[in-house]
Amino acid sequence: MNDPGGSSSEQVPFGYEDVDPEEKTRRVGAVFSSVASRYDVMNDAMSAGMHRLWKDRFVRRVKPRAGEQILDMAGGTGDVAFRMAARGASVTVADINQEMLDVGIERAMARGIDTLVWSRQDAAALTFPDRAFDAYTIAFGIRNVTRIEDALAEAHRVLRHGGRFFCLEFSTTTWPGFKQAYDAYSHRLVPRLGQAIAGDADSYRYLVESIRRFPPTPQFKAMIERAGFAQVSVEPILGGLVAIHSGWKL
């Protein structure tokens, strides 16, 4: 999950509403504080376990190597970081929500993983120095950022020259029939699953709505390019329901 801030002179999307940036920051924080303890269980339920395959594929694209410094932004409960650390990379897990980080730290301790660095960070105003990392990853977190452009600029700033940017995020599938079926499932059943498993239908209603309001793939690709990344590419999964966006700092 991620990110605060900004002036109240503009409106930003929170689900199907448009709200002040500060209000979105507050509400997103409340969403993830509410669902943190059941977040991974709900991911399994909502995706029928497919999120695990998507994250495996994502990490294969990142190609983490021993000795590399990688920032996993919005890394929360550690799912992606555990995979990259297993390949020898030195991973810093960053998230703005302390409850999500606490869950990740507990999971790491249970697995005997003590090589990760955990850091509470705002994606749009990182405290890391320039050119500190070889790769920047963010999985299912960018759509919760209040100012996506600022977060992309920060990703570019903290990467070394030749560094890699990778983002795994929901998008809009183009498969005929599947889009309609998924829309019906997500709007009708996901909030009910959220209530049954996490005791919170409203937070999962927001998460579904946030997917609908996220920029379409071509628009998000252009945003990554405007942030300064080169050779930006998009790898759609399930017709674009999920997509891996990548770019290089050259």
Name its key features.
250 residues, Rossmann fold, seven-stranded mixed sheet, 45% helix, globular, disordered N terminus
Brief summary of the model shown:
The protein has 250 residues and is of the alpha/beta class. The protein has a single domain, classed as Vaccinia Virus protein VP39 (Rossmann fold, 3-Layer(aba) Sandwich), CATH 3.40.50.150.
Task: Report on this structure.
With 250 residues, this protein is of the alpha/beta class. The protein has a seven-stranded mixed beta sheet with strand order 5-4-3-6-7-9-8, with helices on both faces. The chain has a two-stranded antiparallel ribbon with strand order 1-2. α1 (21-35) crosses α9 (201-213), α2 (39-47) packs antiparallel against α8 (190-198) and α8 runs antiparallel to α9. It has one domain: Rossmann fold. The radius of gyration is 17 Å and the shape is globular. The protein is built from ten helices and nine strands. The chain has helices at 21-35, 39-47, 50-62, 79-85, 98-111, 148-158, 178-188, 190-198, 201-213, 217-226, and strands at 12-14, 17-19, 69-73, 90-95, 117-120, 133-139, 159-170, 230-237, 242-248.
